[in-house]
Structures are given as C-alpha cells and as structure tokens.
Amino acid sequence: MSAIVKTVMEKILVLTDDWFKILCAIFVIVSVIFWVQMWRLRETPPGPWGLPILGSLLSLDSEKPYISLTKMSEKYGRIFSLRLGSIYTVVLADSTLIRDVLRCEDFTGRAPLYLTHGIMGGYGLICAEGALWRDHRKMAINWLKQLGMAKYNENRNSLEARILNGVNGMTMEMDGQIGKEMNLVPVLHHHLGNILNDLIFGIKYKNDDSTWKYLQHLQEEGVKSIGVSSCINFLPFLRHLPLFRRRIRFLLDGKEKTHKIYGELIARAAQDTRKDNILSLFLEEKSRRPYRLSDKEESSWSDQQLKHVLADLFGAGLDTTNSTIRWILLFVAMNPAVQLKIHIEMSTKLLSSPKLENIDDLPYLRACIAEGQRIRSVVPVGIPHGTNVDTKIGGYRIPKGTMILPLQWAVHMNPRTWRNPDNFTPERFIDSNGQFNAPPHFIPFQTGKRICLGEELAKMLMFLFVGNILYRYELGLREKPDISGTCGITLTPPDHKIIVKRRVV
C-alpha cells in the first residue's frame, strides 16, 4: 500500500512540476510580449491602454465618439494615442498642432480602414493616396476654378447665376409655406443637390424624377449605414456577421446601382459638346492623355476612377454643405436677437437680395455662418489621415500606417480659446473695426495638403443660400429641438420644423 501511495505522490510531483514549468513559460512569454509592447510605445504619444483585440473601442460613445475623444484629450493632452481595434490611432486636439502636422507630406495618406480601402478600393479623391490622389486633386481644383470657383475669376458670375437659380427655386417653395411650419430638409436637399448635379454631371432632375429620388434615398441611408457600420473599419471580421453583412451588401449594391447611373451619364456626356461640368472636363482631359493599362494596375483615368471621383465630389459636397446650412438656419431661428441684427445689417447695406459682391458689406452675416460652422462641426472627428512612412510629431514616434484624427470638435469647443463655447455668439468673428475676422483656431474645412478642395464653392453656397433666405424671411420655432445632433459620416441636425414668416423690409 505504501508503495502505491509513494508512486502516486511521485506522479503528482511530476505533474505539478510540469504545470509549474508551463505556468513559468506562460509568464515569461506574457512578460516578453508586455515589455516588447512597452518598448515600442516608449516614444509614442500617451493614451489609454485598451483591451486585447478591441483596444479602446468600448471607451467611445457610439453615438458621440467626438465627445469621448475630447474628454480623453483633457486627460492625456493635445496629442494622444489609442488603439481602435486593429488600427493604431493618434488624435490631435490643438489647431496649431493640426496645422503643423497636416501640411507635411508624411500625413497625406489615408488610414487603412475597411470601408474606405475595402469597399472603395482606394479610388476617387477621398480614399485615394499617392500619385493618383495628387494628380486628380490638382485636376479637380483646376476644373472647379474653370467653372468659377475662385474669388477672382471670369466665370465667377456664371457660377453665381447657376447657384442663385437653385436658391430662387427654394425660396419659391418657401413662399408657398408662409405662416406655416415647414421641414426645410427635402426642399434644401433637392435644390442644393440640383446645383451640384448641374456642376458635376451637367444635369438637373425634376423633383419627382425616380432616379433622383433613388439617389437621394441612397445617400441618406448610406450615410446612416456607414455610421452604424463604422466598427467594421476597426474589426473587419464583423462583416461576416448577419447584421453587418446586410449593411455591407446594401453599400455594395448602392455603389453598383449608382455607378450604373453614372455610366449612362458618362455615355451621354461623351456625345455632348458642352464643357461646363466636371464630368465633361474629366472626359476632355482623359482624351488628351495616353490611356495605358499595366499588368497589375488599372489606368488612373479609367471609368472606375471617374465614377468614384464623381461620387466623392457630389456626396461630400452635398452632405457637408447641406448639414452646415441646416445648422446655421436652426441656430439663427433659435436666437431672435441674432436674427434681428442680421436683418438690420441687410436693411442698411443692401438695396436688393445679397449677391457675392456683397460679402464684404455683410460682416455680421458672415460671422453667423462661421459661428454655425464652429458650434456644430459637421465633421466633428475630422477626416482621418494616414501616415505614409515612420515619422514623428512633436518628438513622438508615429509608425507608418497610423490613423491621424484632427479632432475638430475639441478645437472648436475649447473653452480656453472660445469663451462660453456652447453659446451661439457670432460676435466672436467680428474684430474691433466691425469687420469679419476668423481666428487661426477656426478650421471648418480642415487644413493642410488635404484641405477641402471645394472650400470656396462651399462658402459661396452657404453665403447665397443663408443670405437670401434671411433677406426674405423671418424664421421661428414653436419649440426648441434637441441640438446635440446625429453623428454618422457628418453631424446632422435633429428633425425639426421652422415657421416661415415674410420679413418686412
């Protein structure tokens, strides 16, 4: 019996010894991994540790990620880092730092996100990088200038007339709603969208056109789907789950149908002699260049690239400008004293409805537009950039492939640079001489080499739409809506109705 007990004890000791060795090995491996990570992070910006696989995703408010990131910046400083799933991310929460960083070539890439790289394939303007992006961005800016997008340009008056045609179409519809509560969203979407249809495709749709209704629906739902599916960017394996698979399928089907519509527009434009839209100018430029196809790479002037360029110019231009105008009109309607000052300024400075030549005569109106852009940044997290190479920011090491977030919300709502930032105060943008003045920490169109290429066009659209609406009408609200907004690709205002009254001039 004692021999059996002795044998059992010996085996237990052997097993215990083996388990001890295994535990020691696991401890050594974990320690090595930990110290390797610590060594790699020794020169990187500070920030939260996060969880394995998920990183700091659970620390972000899914509906207001910009608020979560702003709170982190208050803890870690104007530059901090975190891991969002598989993506190492550096957040910039200071305007000076953002300007210094985004003007450098090292940061002109795009973050390796699934939706932008996986679905869009690096085509277009928004998702493109390197030579493709540089070439097509330069050409797009030149085309917009040819159409009149410049402060001093022979075609500026022609562009203004095309914009005012859409503005007048909207005010005609508003005339029929005098004294009533009105939802401005479908009216603004139609007329602003048709201005962009005209400039980009050389076409205008009637309000009840089935193709136009589909494109509007696709844009509205696409923005929501991308917002809901944003976690796929950081955890690509989620795309295999039923809920996300349906979302991705919707985006892919929408892209396919949109490109089919664009294909018809391209075929039509090829037969048109007019050169007053982006599509025709692209085709003209393409005809001048040799059309080469390598074994591995499609020509940068292919129909695939053209369709993505058209989608980027239209989608980004309409979504951001539409949301900004809606925010401005909502805040003006909420602040009667501000609206009265605008009306007084117009009464003393204008003899007719505002035109682009009146911009310098209306500093308070410009200040209201700027304050609307500040208090509700339509891209509160900023447009993500990516690093092309291993580089540095302020002495910190930034690895290649890092996502860079210029956190506009933190910049525009910083109480150290904007007194009482939650208050709508246009006077922030008026200098001691009563003239409009935008401080350097105001970056609504971002900054640097990838600054919004349609900045001047957006300013023209906002001035003419907001100016003409407020010249004609007094806007009011029956009750104050929730102004926190809905964050998808852009931060959009809540559903609300505005009371439209004829302004007494």
Mind sketching the topology for me?
Layout: H1 2-40, H2 65-76, E1 79-84, E2 87-92, H3 95-102, H4 114-119, H5 130-146, H6 156-175, E3 181-182, H7 184-201, H8 210-228, H9 242-270, H10 278-288, H11 303-334, H12 336-349, H13 363-375, E4 385-386, E5 391-393, E6 396-398, E7 403-406, H14 408-412, H15 455-472, E8 473-476, E9 486-487, E10 491-492, E11 498-502
Parallel strand pairs: 2-7
Antiparallel strand pairs: 1-2, 3-11, 4-7, 5-6, 8-11, 9-10
Account of the 3D structure:
This protein is 52% helix and 8% strand. The protein is α+β, with helices and mostly antiparallel strands and 505 residues long. A four-stranded mixed sheet has the order 1-2-7-4. The protein has a three-stranded antiparallel sheet with strand order 3-11-8. A two-stranded antiparallel sheet has the order 5-6. The protein is globular and about 110 Å long.
Keywords:
505 residues, alpha+beta, 15 helices
Question: Nutshell version of this structure?
Answer:
The protein is of the alpha+beta class. The protein is 52% helix and 8% strand. Helix 11 packs parallel to helix 15 (455-472).
Number of strands: 11
Shape by Cα distribution: globular
Mean pLDDT across residues:
89
In the predicted model, the low-confidence regions spanning at least 5 consecutive residues are: none
Largest sheet: number of strands, sense, barrel closure: 4 strands, mixed
Tell me the span between the first and last alpha carbons: 112 Å
Radius of gyration: 27 Å
What is the beta-strand fraction? 5-15%
Q: Biggest sheet, strands in spatial order?
A: 1-2-7-4
Helix content: 40-55%
Give the count of helical stretches.
Answer: 15
Q: Would you tell me the structural class of the helices and strands?
A: alpha+beta
Instruction: Give the SSE string.
Output: HHEEHHHHEHHHHHHHEEEEHHEEEE
